[in-house]
């Protein structure tokens, strides 16, 4: 696997000094001259942080097929074909998504299955230029197979540490509670997560809330988030995906998020978006997921420009590539090909993802420096 810490440095084609230095903040006039419109650097080597990826949903299709076979489980055809899931953004659509997700999760039955998922997620992130992965897991789902939520989380954290060492991608873990469970279950998870709080590889870095945004009472989960916050964990719930700006406001009020999973629907109300920017809440935007789950009809409808232009800190993520058939680099390709982001704007998106991460200051500095080198580096492989 490529080591993302080394990728941008290897070039013998650095920008000549006369072309002007790279500006970490964005496009300088010199740079614009040095890199005419249409310069297309390799997005797989753009150093970035991946902040929205679910444990089961991160799985490679081939891995799922192997796990199913080894456990004698027959998978629904939709999990084996190559088409991305496409469902309407209603209860029936979510139900179909959830049923497929559950079928995939049912194939994860041993410690070694769990370790494989983390290891491969880190390997895939490494091959896509990610230097920091923050992966979400609800250990409750895997607890029955490994003797409880405590060992389930320990396995994930232990493998996150090993995978970080072998791939060069620093893997932090977000413990995510589910809206479908009792809020008291969320408190139990928050207390467990708190025991492993940190910011580095194999540590719990944040506490989340996932599943159908239309279900459960958001404010009922506030006590769990308070437990997590007291332990130093960031608040990273989903919100503003299936429900609009009204629910984003509810999440902001009840859970004081540092980041919102999705949050894209905030784009529908300038006041809510202004509040997100003012409160420094980052948005984990997952275009392929939004289209697969019917939130938007196609990539062009995802309000990426609106969010970025409003000053929101955006981190692109893949969410559940197993079902959406679209990994991290594809989200940056969508920004480039559908939303017209130039290389310098794409570099700024990557910087945003790094700054929105919960990585230590030193890790962030290192990755940001690599982005600068990517900007200075060659773009000869293709031109529009
Ligand atoms: Zn998600």
Automatic annotation (TrEMBL):
PANTHER family: ADENINE DEAMINASE (PTHR43114:SF6)
GO molecular-function term, one example from the UniProt record: metal ion binding
Names of required cofactors: Zn(2+)
Adenosine deaminase domain sequence ranges: 47-374
InterPro entries cross-referenced by the UniProt entry: A/AMP_deam_AS, A_deaminase_dom, Ado/ade_deaminase, Metal_Hydrolase
Comp. bias regions, Low complexity: 16-29
Region (Disordered): 1-36
Regions of compositional bias (Polar residues) in chain numbering: 1-10
Lineage of source species: Bacteria, Bacillati, Actinomycetota, Actinomycetes, Micrococcales
Sorted UniProt keywords: Hydrolase, Metal-binding, Zinc
Identification of the protein by name: Adenosine deaminase
GO biological process terms held by the UniProt record: purine ribonucleoside monophosphate biosynthetic process
Stored Pfam families: A_deaminase
Family: Belongs to the metallo-dependent hydrolases superfamily. Adenosine and AMP deaminases family.
């Amino acid at each position: 696997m490529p080591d993302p810490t080394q990728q941008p440095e290897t070039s013998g084609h650095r920008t000549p000094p006369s072309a002007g230095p790279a500006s970490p903040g964005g496009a300088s006039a010199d740079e614009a001259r040095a890199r005419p419109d249409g310069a297309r650097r390799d997005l797989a080597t753009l150093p970035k942080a991946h902040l929205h990826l679910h444990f089961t949903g991160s799985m490679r299709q081939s891995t799922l097929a192997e796990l199913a076979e080894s456990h004698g489980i027959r998978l629904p055809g939709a999990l084996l074909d190559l088409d991305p899931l496409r469902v309407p953004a209603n209860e029936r659509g979510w139900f179909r998504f959830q049923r497929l997700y559950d079928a995939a999760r049912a194939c994860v039955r041993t410690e070694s299955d769990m370790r494989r998922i983390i290891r491969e997620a880190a390997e895939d992130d490494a091959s896509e230029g990610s230097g920091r992965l923050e992966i979400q897991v609800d250990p409750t789902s895997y607890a029955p197979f490994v003797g409880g939520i405590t060992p389930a989380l320990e396995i994930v954290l232990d493998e996150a540490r090993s995978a970080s060492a072998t791939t060069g991608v620093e893997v932090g873990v977000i413990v995510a509670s589910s809206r479908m469970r009792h809020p008291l279950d969320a408190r139990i998870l928050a207390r467990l997560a708190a025991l492993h709080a940190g910011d580095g590889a194999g540590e719990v870095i944040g506490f989340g809330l996932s599943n159908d945004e239309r279900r459960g009472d958001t404010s009922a989960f506030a006590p769990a988030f308070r437990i997590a916050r007291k332990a130093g964990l960031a608040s990273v719930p989903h919100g503003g995906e299936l429900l609009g700006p009204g629910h984003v406001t509810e999440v902001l009020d009840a859970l004081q998020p540092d980041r919102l999973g999705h949050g894209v629907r905030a784009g529908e109300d300038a006041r809510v978006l202004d509040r997100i920017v003012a409160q420094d809440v980052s948005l984990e935007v997952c275009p392929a997921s939004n289209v697969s789950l019917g939130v938007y009809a196609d990539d062009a409808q995802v309000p990426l420009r609106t969010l970025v232009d409003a000053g929101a800190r955006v981190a692109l993520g893949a969410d559940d590539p197993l079902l959406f058939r679209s990994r991290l680099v594809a989200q940056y390709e969508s920004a480039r090909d559908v939303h017209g982001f130039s290389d310098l704007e794409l570099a700024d998106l990557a910087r945003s993802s790094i700054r929105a991460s919960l990585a230590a200051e030193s890790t962030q500095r290192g990755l940001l420096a690599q982005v600068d080198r990517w900007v200075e580096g060659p773009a000869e492989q293709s031109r529009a």
